[in-house]
Amino acid sequence: MKRAIYPGSFDPITLGHLDLIERSCAIFDEVIVGVLHNRAKKPLFTAAERMEMIREVTKNFPTVKVVAFDGLLVDFVKKCEARVVIRGLRAITDLEYEMQLAQTNRVLSSEIDTIFLTTNLAYAYLSSTTVKEVARLGGNIQAFVPEIVEKRLKDVYQV
Ligand code: ADP
Questions:
Q1: pLDDT tens for the chain, residues 1 to 159
Q2: Under 8 Å CB-to-CB from 69, ≥6 apart: which residues?
Q3: Cβ 64 vs Cβ 17: under 8 Å
Q4: Any catalytic annotation for residue 78?
Q5: Is 119 a pocket residue for ligand 1 (Cβ < 6 Å)?
Q6: Do the Cβ atoms of 125 and 90 come closer than 8 Å?
Q7: Whose CA is nearest to atom 4 of ligand 1?
Q8: Cβ–Cβ < 8 Å for 36, 5
């Protein structure tokens, strides 16, 4: 059973994240989306809300599970009985941070490997932060997020 963990904040999930989940499903038997709920920066959506949105937009992928986690990623990966972490690389600017994270995790737990998927070019510019900013200012976010996320963002910002 090849199981991978795709961790992140997903505040909220974008079409870029979703594309990565879909492609991971083609490689792994099971993909656990790990939703980080202990952030220094206060997220816009609670972990429960973020998980609900992810579950809704991945409901047609039977091998996807959505689980909240806190604390060290390597501990969560072990608890899930997995050995692979998936991360997305959008641009070269992601690389430095992602390398630091992956190398640190390798030192903490040498049996865990990080696999990077390059993002779909169509979503390479996309981040949850940008989407929230555009939504807050009343811009059209249809091209960035699934429909239910669009609705939730509009509700939050009352636009
Ligand atoms: P984090 O706060 O851990 O970076 P994010 O939710 O921002 O959490 O991202 C989770 C993962 O998804 C990261 O590996 C990130 O590189 C990747 N990711 C973010 N945006 C995109 C995108 N547009 N396309 C593909 N992958 C993305």
A1: 899 999 999 999 999 999 999 999 999 999 999 999 876 778 999 999 999 999 999 999 999 999 999 999 999 999 999 999 999 999 888 899 999 999 999 999 999 999 999 999 999 999 999 999 999 999 999 999 999 999 999 999 988
A2: 7, 34, 35, 36, 37, 76
A3: no
A4: no
A5: yes
A6: yes
A7: 8
A8: no
Q: Is 128 designated active site?
A: yes
Ligand 1 atom at minimum distance from 11 CA: 6
Q: Is 12 in the pocket of ligand 1 (CB under 6 A)?
A: no
What is the 10 CA–ligand 1 centroid distance (Å)? 7
What is the model's pTM?
Answer: 0.94
CA distances for 63 relative to 6, 33, 85, angstroms:
13, 11, 16
